[in-house]
Amino acid sequence: MMKTIPKKIKIIRIIGGGPAGMMAALELSTTHEVHLYEKEKTLGRKFLVAGKGGFNLSNQATGKDLYDQYDPLHLFSVLLQQFDTQKTREFFEKLGIPTYIGSSGRVFPEIGIKPIAVLNALKNKLIAQGVQLYFEHEFVDFNTKKIYFQTPTETYTYPFDDCIFALGGASWSVTGSKGDWLEIFQKKGIHTTPFAPSNCGLHIQGFNPQLIAQFEGIPLKNIAIRCHNKTVKGEAVLTNYGLEGNAVYPIAAIARKQLETHKKTAVFLDFKPFNTHEELLQKISSQTRTKNYSYLFKLSKVQLGILKNFTDKKTYTTPTLFVEKLKKLEIPIVGLRPIDEAISTVGGISMDAINSDLSLKKIPNIYIAGEMFDWDTVTGGFLLQGCFATGHAVAQNILRKSIVS
Ligand SMILES: Cc1cc2nc3c(=O)[nH]c(=O)nc-3n(C[C@H](O)[C@H](O)[C@H](O)COP(=O)(O)OP(=O)(O)OC[C@H]3O[C@@H](n4cnc5c(N)ncnc54)[C@H](O)[C@@H]3O)c2cc1C
Q: Which residues line ligand 1 (CB under 6 A)?
């Protein structure tokens, strides 16, 4: 077998201690001198937040089923071929974090493994591989050769051979991912796109406040939601402004695009996604003794409440109308929740500023990884999978350029 050795040991500086930055540091530090900078006091604060609710490290999807979840598809199908969901599971297994696939297809750490244990496993491995960690180091400027940091007391300038930015998106700013670095890149003439929320709740028009008071926080289970050309099955939760939940987040991006173009849009709820119109009408006609359709279809109180909110009395006495609304209840959407509440964001470094190896077109020894550039995917482990894949890809691209065989 051909042995590969680096032409020289490079100095690589990685800025941003989230999943993408940590992945890149782990891949590069067996061969090169790696320094990882984080402006907060600890690594992976958003990673820990992700751990509080669910903690989908990845998903079981492979091949086309996996690639289809990403936009832009052409870039991510290449990145994910190199580092797919199975590779993520193997990566964590080697770290001592076995995973399992839940019933929804999401990949979780084995039951009993706390999020902090996953983060500590990553951190311990970084230290074991000699990665030099710096905390409370906020990057404030850069050029083709040097990077400038501000700490609470000092400013520092460090030279680099290659540099990786993995600064995250612009939601949950309490975790450090504020997106306030955008201007630094703009000033260098690097094309950026404004941040916008993705995977977030929807503002609804026309909810009766009494209904909200009665049902706030109660899930609508086993429903489907459609916006424009996308339908998602799952769960939605009624909130005091509208809807949240795992069936809502994946359609937020489409709702945002519709709102940008048309100023208003709508979602369509299907309370019986596993039944056809015909089956439901059949059920009504076979049960001539009851005229109580909501009882017949075992609708929950919250389902019935929403149905009543957006229909009139005639719906309850007309079988075809009732079934029509049960399958396709139109709910007007007037906006998305604020960006800071979103699970992820789009925007950041524009796709047209980046080469296919994720280096900057203007400065090719600077690479970009994770949520800080303009790509999108849905919840369910695909976000972290995308961050790991981009972190892995930049590392491999740097290694490829620095190796003689
Ligand atoms: C509530 C919530 C739940 C989530 N759940 C899941 C889930 O279950 N599954 C999933 O796949 N995804 C989930 N996500 C999304 C996932 O956590 C993110 O997509 C992921 O953390 C992004 O990784 P990243 O490395 O790109 O950036 P980040 O994790 O945001 O890390 C970027 C780091 O860069 C640092 N930084 C920023 N600016 C500077 C600077 N100027 N100088 C130095 N450092 C800087 C930040 O402090 C931060 O630590 C969730 C997100 C949220 C908010």
A: 15-21, 37-40, 45-47, 49-50, 53-56, 138-139, 166-168, 171-172, 176-177, 181, 343-344, 370-371, 381, 383-384, 387
Non-local CB neighbours of 316 within 8 Å, separated by 6+ positions: 293, 294, 322
What is the rounded distance in angstroms from the CA atom of residue 1 to the CA atom of residue 74? Answer: 32
139 and 211 in a single domain? The answer is no
Atom of ligand 1 nearest to the CA of 58: 11
Provide φ and ψ at 65, rounded to 5°: -60, -35
Give pTM, 2 decimals: 0.94
The best mutation among 13, 38, 46 to test binding of ligand 1, ranked by most ligand atoms within 8 Å of the C-beta, falls on 46
Residues 314, 354: one domain?
Answer: no
57 Cα–ligand 1 center, Å:
13
Taking a C-beta distance cutoff of 8 angstroms, is the pair 318, 293 a contact?
Answer: no
Range of the domain at 65: 5-197+346-404
**115-152 burial string, b = 16+ CB within 10 Å, else e?**
beebbebbbebbeeeebebbeebbbeebeeeebebeee
Among the candidates 289, 317, 336, a domain finishes at 336
**Per residue in 83-133, pLDDT tens?**
999 999 999 999 999 999 998 899 999 999 999 999 999 999 999 999 999
